[in-house]
Amino acid sequence: MYIVADIGGTKTRVAASVDGATFGEPVMMDTPLRYGDGVAAFITHARGLSNGQKIDGIAIGIKGVVAADKRSVITAPQNILLDWKDRPLAQDIEAQLGASVRMENDTALVGLGEAAFGAGKDHSVVAYLTVSTGVNGVRIVDGAIDRGRAEIGGQYLRAGDTLKSIEDHISGAAISDRYGVHPKEIDKDSPLWEELARITAFGVHNMLLHWSPDIVVLGGSMFNEIGIAVPRVEYHVKNIMRKFPTIPPMVHSVLGEVGGLWGGLALLGRLAR
Question: Exposed, middle or buried: residue 173 (CB in 10 Å: 0-12, 13-18, 19+)?
Answer without folding.
Answer: middle
